[in-house]
Every structure is written in structure tokens, then in C-alpha cells.
Write a structure and sequence with these properties.
160 residues; elongated; three-stranded antiparallel sheet; single chain
């Protein structure tokens, strides 16, 4: 099953490459499912797991007989766009698990280096440990602090 997921993901990425500078790919869920010999829910899974804002994509979907899927590649060329994107994907709170997904995705997109990612992970882990042991903060408050720290570190790197 995961091999099919990778194949569908690769196909969609190739569509972006074939479009040149285009940042939008339009598909039909049913046609894509028929092409790969799978059920439409498999296409939904690929879109939900592989084409997320953290990975630099937005997905618009309309179900039904004339339904479509539009995948937009998020542009982060302008520093102001990067800052807005960071605020959107981090949000007001973020869990440790969400950070573990987000940071590799940002590194994969070239928005972070491996070294920067490691430094951020260590800082967030330390803040999490302090929040648990020294300050006995609730999980919600720790997640608020973690989101604020992450946004500040990412903003600093984006503007550097």
C-alpha cells in the first residue's frame, strides 16, 4: 500500500515539473484512481498525508460528479510570504509530535538546514522538559510556549 502511495505522490510531483513554472495542478479524483487502479479514498489519503501546508501545498477539493482536485504549491520566495506561511503552519499551539513532523518538512523544502533543525529541536526539547519538571505547566501552556518559541526561531532564520 505504501508503494502505491509513493507512486501516486511521485506522479503528482511530476505533474508540477511538467507544468514548468506553474504552481497549480488540477486533477480529477476518479480519473486518478482509475489510472492507478485504486479506490478514490487512496487518492484522498495521499493528498492528506503528502500534500500538506507543512510540505508547501494547499489542496482544494470539490466532490461529486464534476468534482476536481486543485493542488497549489505555496510560494515562499518573498521573506514576508515566508513569515506569513510560518505563522499559518505553526498556529497558536503546537505539540511535540507536530514539531517532529514540521521541522523535517521545512528542511526538505530547503527552508531549514540540518544544523538549524537540530538546534531548534534541542531548544524545544529543553523548553518542554523545563515546562514539565521545573515549572509544572499544563500541556496546553507548554504547547503555547513551544509554538511561540518555534515561530520566533523560524522568523529569525527567515529574516537572516
Amino acid at each position: 500500500m505504501s508503494n502505491l502511495t509513493r507512486t501516486i505522490e511521485k506522479y503528482i510531483h511530476e505533474l508540477f515539473g511538467a507544468e514548468g513554472d506553474e504552481s497549480i495542478v488540477s486533477l480529477r479524483r476518479k480519473e486518478l484512481a482509475e489510472t492507478f487502479g485504486c479506490v478514490p479514498s487512496q487518492i484522498n489519503y495521499v493528498l492528506r498525508s503528502r500534500f500538506t501546508p507543512e510540505r508547501g501545498f494547499l489542496v482544494e477539493s470539490q466532490r461529486g460528479g464534476h468534482g476536481y482536485i486543485r493542488i497549489l504549491r505555496i510560494s515562499c520566495e518573498d521573506p514576508e510570504e515566508r513569515l506569513h506561511h510560518i505563522d499559518d503552519i505553526v498556529g497558536e499551539t503546537i505539540t511535540e509530535q507536530e514539531c517532529r513532523k514540521l521541522l523535517p518538512a521545512l528542511q526538505e523544502r530547503g527552508l531549514l538546514t540540518a544544523r538549524e533543525r537540530l538546534i531548534i529541536e534541542v531548544a524545544l526539547r529543553h523548553a518542554e522538559e523545563l515546562g514539565r519538571s521545573e515549572f509544572d505547566l499544563s500541556p496546553h501552556k507548554r504547547n503555547l510556549i513551544q509554538a511561540d518559541m518555534l515561530k520566533k526561531m523560524l522568523r529569525g532564520l527567515m529574516l537572516a
